[in-house]
Amino acid sequence: MKTPRPSPSETPAGEGGPVTKGGKRDGRHVRGLASAQRIVDTTIQLIAEEGMAGVTMQRIAARIGSSNALVVFHFGSKDKLFRAVLEYLNDQFAKLWENTVRAPGLSPAKRIVAAMDCARHFRREHPDWVVVWVLFGSDRQTMQLDRMISLPNDRAYLAETRALLADIAREGGYGDVDIGSLADGLNYLVHGAWYWDTFNPEAAQSEALHKAGMTLLRHAFPRSFPVGE
Is 226 within a domain? Predict the structure, then answer.
């Protein structure tokens, strides 16, 4: 699992960035970060509303009421802008994972449940982010970029999930559980739910992901996930 990279939105005004001789933060740097983040946010909104095909640097500039030159100044090209969007989405999910799945004091069983709920929470709180992420992975022009940026993180989450399941099996004395298949199954549930919710938004509030995941966990580890908890 990678450590989340700082993104423009994670640097509050007046914090981070170069310091002037007088000890003050460079206002131009702060404004530049805010401007770049506004472009990323606008790109996400535009893709979520209209899909990938119609997104151009000119349309993004028009949406924020600025010139195309500003977008080019910050990102250089649409490919670099799309890369920044994907890195931002990955960073935001990584931060949520860190704060929930890796929260201090949780048992491996609670961390697994937190991992499923992390994906569900991310989808409910930021539906546009997940829509854009799914579209990046589905569009032929951006699929390779998504694989390059997102796939290593997805594999790291899967490896961490597999390690947690192995801990549960060891601590609970479950010697006959196929940890690899169980981890893959939970991974398919999460990604399938994101795709299904993206193209069927009325199903976005469904509890099916959590219930199906808990059914699998209770079947594999009945003593660790008793019914009613």
Answer: no
pTM of the model: 0.84
Backbone angles phi, psi at 107, to 5 degrees: -75, 160
Residue-wise pLDDT tens digits, 116-134: 999 989 998 999 999 999 9
Task: List, for residues 61-104, the tens digit of each pLDDT value.
Answer: 999 998 889 999 999 999 999 999 999 999 999 999 999 999 99
Q: Supply φ then ψ for residue 103, to 5 degrees.
A: -60, 140
b/e per residue, 17-43, with b = 16+ CB within 10 A? beeeeeeebeeeebeebebbbbbbbbb
**Domain coverage including residue 101:** 8-220
Task: Kindly state whether residue 162 falls inside one of the protein's structural domains.
Answer: yes
Q: If 0-12 CB within 10 Å is exposed, 13-18 middle and 19+ buried, where does residue 45 land?
A: middle
